Amino acid sequence: MALMRWKANYSVGVDEFDKDHKSLMHALNKLHAAALKGKSNEIAGKMLRRMVVTASGHFAAEEKAMESAGFPGLAEHRAKHHDLSAKLAEFLSRDKNADQTMYVAFLYFVRDWFKDHMLNVDREYAPLLKNHGIK
Question: For the CA atoms of the chain, what is the radius of gyration?
Answer without folding.
Answer: 15
